[in-house]
Amino acid sequence: MARKEDLIPEIKAMIVERLFLNVSPEDIGDHEPLMETYHIDSVQLFEIVVGLEEEYGVVVEDEEFSLELFETVDKIAEFAASKL
User: Fold this and answer.
1) Terminal CA-CA length for the chain
2) pLDDT exceeds cutoff 80 at 70
3) Are residues 40 and 34 in contact, defined by beta-carbon separation less than 8 angstroms?
4) pTM (two decimals)
5) 53 and 18 Cβ atoms separated by less than 8 Å
6) How far apart are CA 28 and CA 26, in angstroms?
7) Exposed, middle or buried: residue 73 (CB in 10 Å: 0-12, 13-18, 19+)?
8) How far apart are CA 30 and CA 8, in angstroms?
């Protein structure tokens, strides 16, 4: 199983790249509410899901999906680590 701590910087970089955010990955807080802070909408949220699938082979099943799961980088990394 991958370590959550190792995934956090990679996931931040993926989010910045895929969502074209005007912020450095290291400026995103691990526990910062992504949707509120960066005004992430449902289309952008889907792009994060696709990024996890493409970069890590992590499949998010319909029954697993929740907004809470994608609330922070820490939660995304925890989910991804549990799937690897």
Assistant:
1) 5
2) yes
3) yes
4) 0.92
5) no
6) 5
7) buried
8) 7
Residue 13 to residues 17, 25, 61, 64, 81, Cα–Cα distance (Å)? 6, 5, 23, 24, 16
Q: How far apart are CA 47 and CA 54, in angstroms?
A: 10
Structure tokens at 48: 């994060």
Are 2 and 80 contacting, i.e. CB atoms less than 8 angstroms apart?
yes
Q: Identify whether the C-beta of residue 34 lies closer than 8 Å to the C-beta of residue 59.
A: no
Query: Both tokens of residue 11?
Result: 């996931």
> Quick one: tokens of 55?
């970069």
pLDDT tens digits, one per residue of 5-44: 999 999 999 999 999 999 999 999 999 999 999 999 989 9
- Residue 57 pLDDT > 90, yes or no? yes
Can you list the domains of the chain with their CATH numbers? 4-83 (1.10.1200.10)
